[in-house]
Amino acid sequence: MEAPRLYSTKPVQSLKPTKKIPLEEDTGKASDALPLPLYLTNALFFTLFFSVVYFLLSRWREKIRTSTPLHVVTFSDIIAILSFLASFVYLLGFFGIDFVQSLVFQSSPDVWIAEEEDDEVLLAKEDARKVPCGQALDCSLPPLPPVAPIVTVQKVFDEKPVTVLTEEDEEIIKSVVAGTTPSYSLESKLGDCKRAAAIRREALQRLTGKSLSGLPLDGFDYESILGQCCEMPVGYVQIPVGISGPLLVNGREYSVPMATTEGCLVASTNRGCKAIHLSGGATSVLLKDGMTRAPCVRFGTAKRAADLKLYLEDPDNFETLSVVFNRSSRFGRLQGIKCAIAGKNLYIRFTCSTGDAMGMNMVSKGVQNVLDFLQTDFPDMDVIGISGNYCSDKKPAAVNWIEGRGKSVVCEATIKGDVVRKVLKTSVESLVELNMLKNLTGSAMAGALGGFNAHASNIVAAIYIATGQDPAQNVESSHCITMMEAVNDGKDLHVSVTMPSIEVGTVGGGTQLASQSACLNLLGVKGASKETPGANSRTLATIVASAVLAGELSLMSAIAAGQLVKSHMKYNRSTKDVSKASS
């Protein structure tokens, strides 16, 4: 499919002739109506114009040095701006009148025809490029002869100008390199996030002596990540997004976006989607929905720690604690408290619903409310940390595998025997035996914790990156046990995946970025659900589990049929030198 063009097929005609045309003698001048002699009027406005420009530039530089917002103006600034506008209008009107007359009255129609023909030639040359335009290639046009530029409406409104470093930028770069200006403060000092990224990028290249030419800078909204997604940006990384599907689950079809650089992954998952679809689809069920946070507190004695444990786990106190916890959010609702004691130390695992958000910040605020409340009856309680690793976040942990964290989902499908043979190229018996010896026995021999599967993390990571989830939570979100058994007198295959801790959200974090938001929109789960709070994030969790089911089914079939190495050698090996693609 050809990439969309960045220009229209018919260029807008330039307003500047390409040929010089002799001007006729003027019949009248606007300067005839001036009350003062012409040379005095010109001298006055020239002096006013350059004086005001110098004043405004000096004020601007002073504001940058003192970190004063540029929109804060004094009375003298207002007077200077008005004077600048007045002198600019005069000079433009005086010196521009002849130019306007030459455009409107002196141009020959032949000039416009000739220019339009030149523009068509330029477009024809561009369309004749032999190298396809892709994100990994340098698609800049070769130098063109000095003719009027092709300007289109689409470019004017959609394209931002390429960042060009000015003399002032050069001074700031030198200041960053010298260490007098902190790199992290550029956004607040300049008030322009893209300009700050460009300056930081150039300073980094000078400090390290390494080029960042392959890392894109333009084409990204740096305002959208300020104070939310990433600090001190110098560019962005491009990751291709492939589509697997349609994935038929719970009677609905989904096209699943997967951001990955691993060859065969999307193709393999797509084959699994096909097998599921031909067999009537998959069924995915949400078992539990609750994010956790577990602070660590310490007392002077183990008895005092035990007293708090008994208090927190007493059902009579749950309602009081819920009221305190739920003050933090209209979506966060306390579901339960589980404690573990280690000597004088107590680990308190709070579980709460979080709506359509992944919910780490939400549950943390609720926990803080409860800790502040407990200080009244337990003044000797010493809070060691809001997180004591009993949560457990971004680490493989048995507590997540057993108790669950985030969304707990089970997904199943019955694959017809004909589909197993014709689409998956293997047999039911081979898949059942391989799953037993690989995913179950082999994982047990390895001492796996939640890793009783073939490659669940592959699919989870790809979907997480595409939809703006936290990639680090792939650790516990990929906890999965894959089960396979022969059914219907051994003719068909029943396959299931059980995933107790899928941590996803459809609001907050990276989900609000344009690309990730588009992928969520593709799945129909963008933003918060207006009808039922939390419905979108729960649907996303079931999609993730169903995609894992498809990936497990296809990879296990490839291994059973002896196709794994062959397919990877064909689709996951490239003879192309990517490092030279942009040169």
CATH class descriptor of the largest domain: Alpha Beta
The whole-number mean of residue pLDDT values reads 84
N-end to C-end Cα span: 24 Å
**What Rg do the Cα atoms give?**
33 Å
CATH architecture of the largest domain: Alpha-Beta Complex
| Fraction of residues in β-strands | 5-15%
Count of individual beta strands: 11
In brief:
With 583 residues, the chain is an alpha+beta fold. The protein contains 19 helices and eleven strands.
How would you characterize this protein structure?
The chain is an alpha+beta fold and 583 residues long. It has 4 domains: 38-96; 165-238, Orthogonal Bundle (HMGR, N-terminal domain); 241-288 and 404-572, 3-hydroxy-3-methylglutaryl-coenzyme A Reductase, Chain A, domain 2 (Alpha-Beta Complex), CATH 3.90.770.10; 295-390, 2-Layer Sandwich (Alpha-Beta Plaits), CATH 3.30.70.420. It has helices at 38-65, 75-105, 109-127, 153-158, 167-178, 186-190, 193-208, 265-278, 302-312, 315-325, 360-374, 398-403, 417-422, 428-445, 456-467, 474-477, 514-523, 535-560, 564-571; strands at residues 241-249, 252-259, 283-293, 296-298, 333-342, 345-353, 382-385, 406-415, 451-452, 480-487, 492-502. Strands 3, 4, 5, 6, 7, 8, 9, 10 and 11 form a 9-stranded mixed sheet that branches. Strands 1-2 form a two-stranded antiparallel ribbon. Helix 1 packs across helix 2, helix 5 (167-178) crosses helix 7 and helix 14 crosses helix 18. The chain is globular, with a radius of gyration of 33 Å. Residues 1-31 and 102-162 have low confidence and may be disordered. Its EC number is 1.1.1.34. One of its GO terms (biological process) is sterol biosynthetic process. This is 3-hydroxy-3-methylglutaryl coenzyme A reductase. Pathway: Metabolic intermediate biosynthesis; (R)-mevalonate biosynthesis; (R)-mevalonate from acetyl-CoA: step 3/3. Keywords: Endoplasmic reticulum, Glycoprotein, Isoprene biosynthesis, Membrane, NADP, Oxidoreductase, Transmembrane, Transmembrane helix.
